[in-house]
């Protein structure tokens, strides 16, 4: 009746923070209250959402990308009837209908478009939906879990997020601790990710010390990527600090080194100069492409953080990723 169930997520770690998380998951899973998960990027919000859903064990877990544009999001969420708009050659069920009896996971709820927030509030209050183009509404029974790495309370104070929607979602709240606050989990997480790559590599004690000294701004996702990259380039059996990506040695310096400031670059290469290209000088678009690739590596592919790091908007970042074929 429902889509096939995924295998249960394994929440690795035994720090006080993770143990508390496990207790919370059991409690929250048994209730049907909305849950709001707050935490930096890569801290495990989605894996925790899946774990909460799995406690009840009914229906499907349906992730919803809240950063879609308003009209697209509306048809994604509520579905549409045949002929509702040009190109709607057949009717289509929305994601909320797919989550019937299960969980709708609103990922990045902080990005939910302002003009759609009132509609979402109504759906959560009335528990009914109306597909785009339909005249009738129909009942919807689903559990809500929302997640964000933004300070949603501040977004509400600034008027970017509706107060009534905030309180409706914020019934049970959980803050996921960043990895730098539970470094004792690093060896267990590293072993878990090694096993997941099917690797029998060992980690040197010096490597574990370096990992413990690093702050992991990309959290568990960055650690996962780091392990995968080290395994890919080292035939084993021992991984040492030599195998670490450069970001761990000095992240900011590494990034600055990859992309010198443009003003300085222009001063040294005035337009009237003959088009010589001394070694080490790159075209501006090559510099830009390298800087984006480095920042993506550094953030372990997290596009919001990459855009922040580069000082550009997400839309601009998406455009450039496409242009340089970095995805
Ligand atoms: N405690 C954990 N045990 C095992 N794996 C974990 C744990 N926490 C996170 N991960 C893994 O780290 C990666 C990132 O986790 P997840 O996608 O849940 O983070 P997130 O908080 O949703 O990040 P974002 O805000 O960037 O979407 C995933 O591959 C996930 O399986
Ligand atoms: Mg996520």
Bound molecules: adenosine-5'-triphosphate, magnesium ion
Strand content: 5-15%
Could you name the ranges where pLDDT drops below 50 across 5 or more consecutive residues? Answer: 1-5, 251-275
* CATH-defined fold name of the largest domain: Rossmann fold
Distance between the termini: 35 Å
Q: How are the strands of the biggest sheet laid out side by side? A: 2-5-8-1-9
Give the total of domains.
Answer: 3
Structural class: alpha/beta
* Number of alpha- plus pi-helical segments: 15
CATH class term of the largest domain: Alpha Beta
* Total DSSP E strands: 11
Percent of residues in helices comes to 40-55%
- What is the string of helix and strand elements? HEHEHEEHEHEEEHHEHEHHEHHHHH
Main β-sheet: number of strands, strand sense, barrel status? 5 strands, parallel
Q: Sum up the overall morphology in one term.
A: globular
CATH H level, superfamily name of the largest domain: P-loop containing nucleotide triphosphate hydrolases
Mean pLDDT: 84
CATH hierarchy: architecture of the largest domain: 3-Layer(aba) Sandwich
Q: Which radius of gyration do the C-alpha atoms yield?
A: 23 Å
Question: Please, could you describe this protein's structure?
Answer:
The chain is α/β, with parallel strands linked by helices. It folds into three domains: 16-177, Rossmann fold, CATH 3.40.50; 180-248, Helicase, Ruva Protein, domain 3 (Orthogonal Bundle), CATH 1.10.8; 251-323, Orthogonal Bundle (Arc Repressor Mutant, subunit A). Helix content is 46%, strand content 11%. The chain contains 15 helices and eleven strands. A hairpin with an 8-residue loop joins strand 6 and strand 7 (138-139). Helix 1 crosses helix 2 (45-56), helix 11 runs antiparallel to helix 13 and helix 13 packs across helix 14. The longest helix has 15 residues, at 16-30. It starts with 15 loop residues before the first helix and ends with a helix. The relative contact order is 0.11. Residues 45-46, 107 line the site of magnesium ion.
């Amino acid at each position: 009746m429902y889509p096939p169930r995924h295998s249960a997520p394994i929440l690795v770690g035994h720090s006080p923070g993770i143990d508390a998380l496990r207790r919370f998951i059991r409690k929250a899973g048994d209730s049907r209250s909305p849950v709001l998960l707050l935490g930096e990027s890569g801290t495990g919000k989605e894996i925790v959402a899946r774990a909460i859903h799995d406690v009840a064990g009914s229906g499907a877990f349906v992730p919803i990308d809240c950063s879609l544009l308003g009209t697209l999001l509306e048809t994604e969420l509520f579905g549409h009837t045949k002929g509702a708009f040009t190109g709607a050659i057949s009717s289509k069920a929305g994601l909320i209908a797919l989550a019937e009896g299960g969980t709708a996971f609103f990922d990045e709820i902080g990005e939910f478009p302002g003009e759609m927030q009132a509609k979402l509030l109504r759906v959560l209050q009335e528990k009914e939906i109306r597909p785009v183009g339909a005249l009738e509404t129909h009942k919807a029974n689903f559990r809500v879990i929302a997640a964000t790495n933004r300070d949603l309370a501040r977004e509400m104070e600034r008027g970017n997020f509706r107060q009534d929607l905030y309180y409706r979602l914020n019934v049970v709240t959980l803050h996921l601790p960043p990895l730098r606050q539970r470094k004792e989990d690093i060896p267990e997480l590293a072993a878990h990710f090694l096993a997941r790559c099917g690797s029998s590599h060992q980690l040197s004690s010096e490597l574990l010390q370096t990992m413990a000294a690093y702050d992991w701004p990309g959290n568990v996702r960055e650690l996962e990527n780091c392990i995968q990259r080290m395994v890919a380039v080292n035939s084993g059996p021992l991984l040492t600090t030599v195998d670490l990506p450069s970001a761990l040695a000095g992240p900011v310096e590494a990034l600055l080194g990859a992309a010198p400031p443009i003003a300085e670059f222009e001063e040294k290469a005035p337009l009237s100069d003959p088009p010589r290209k001394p070694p080490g000088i790159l075209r501006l678009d090559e510099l830009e492409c390298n800087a984006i690739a480095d920042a993506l590596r550094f953030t372990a592919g997290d596009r919001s953080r990459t855009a922040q790091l580069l000082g550009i908007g997400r839309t601009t970042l998406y455009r450039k990723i496409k242009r340089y074929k970095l995805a």
